[in-house]
Write a structure and sequence with these properties.
By secondary structure, this protein is mainly β. It contains 1 helix and 10 strands; from the N terminus they run H-E-E-E-E-E-E-E-E-E-E. The termini are far apart.
Length: about 140
């Protein structure tokens, strides 16, 4: 086996994450951009079960048929007029209005006007990360 072939194989294994522990986790962000918007349409913000914040969409199944689906948004809060990632259930909808979801090929964004500590409304937005389309159903 030639030296060049060994080097090429080692580089291929390293790039695939097989054979180099130094590469494990380097390119794994905690929050990955959502990809659901590439196979879903009619993406909107909605309230479900009374006051829970959700994203609604019409998503394609593996067989090409469309499915209406909804996903409760988790972990989004309002911190002094700014949308932020938080733990647990989303609470931003209690102090924000004009809530919208916009999507393009690169990702989806939640935008709103949120009250700050002084009672003023501030325009704010946050990316909706880690949402996917699993056979026509929105999932985290």
């Amino acid at each position: 086996m030639s030296h060049l072939f060994k080097m090429t194989s080692a580089l291929a294994l390293a790039a695939a994450g097989l054979g180099s522990t130094a590469m494990i986790g380097i390119a794994t962000p905690a929050a990955a951009a959502s990809g659901f918007q590439n196979t879903c349409s009619n993406i909107t913000f909605a309230y479900v079960s009374g006051s829970q914040a959700a994203v609604n969409a019409m998503c394609l199944r593996a067989d090409g048929s469309a499915n209406g689906t909804s996903l409760i948004l988790i972990g989004i809060g309002n911190n002094n007029g700014a949308l932020v990632q938080s733990g647990g259930a989303s609470t931003f909808q209690k102090s924000c209005g004009n809530i919208q979801i916009t999507a393009n090929a690169q990702g989806a964004t939640l935008s709103a006007l949120c009250r700050d500590g002084g009672g003023n409304s501030r325009a704010t937005s946050i990316p909706l990360n880690n949402i996917g389309n699993n056979n026509g159903n929105l999932t985290y």
